Amino acid sequence: MTPDLPLTLYVDRACPLCAREVRWLERSADPARLRLVDISAADFDPKGLDRDLAQLRRRLHARSASGAWLTGVDATYWSWRLAGHGRWAAPLGWRPLRPLLLLGYQLFAVLRPHLDWLPHPDGASRCTTGCNVPQKPSKTSAASDDRL
């Protein structure tokens, strides 16, 4: 059953892997069909969603225009299809693969909070303290330090 449009996908842009997928979806998604809402944004408020922030962070959630919720693999499947990536989404809809996909998603959902060490596509968004990276000393200053 196709969800009523637009489908609102609740994404976590603070997650490096999720942020990559969000960028991929943004490049091709029609906002009239797929809306992306960042649950890690400072101004995000889940009031009125009948889901709290912890639930939204545990699993990927999407909500249809009629209010029906899709989670996990189903949210991924429909968001990819609605963004025009049906070829990539197709295997997610294959019934024989479903048990394996659900198990794989559960594993990913458990591990996702521990993947923050991965490089983020927007390096600045990972830095909460200004990201002052020390400059590499020049060869001349390193040579003068050796003489001391």
UniProtKB/TrEMBL annotation:
It comes from the Bacteria. GO terms for molecular function: protein-disulfide reductase activity. Residues 129-148 are annotated as: Disordered. It holds the Pfam family DCC1-like. InterPro entries: DCC1-like, DCC1_Trx. This is Thiol-disulfide oxidoreductase DCC. It comes from Stutzerimonas stutzeri CCUG 29243.
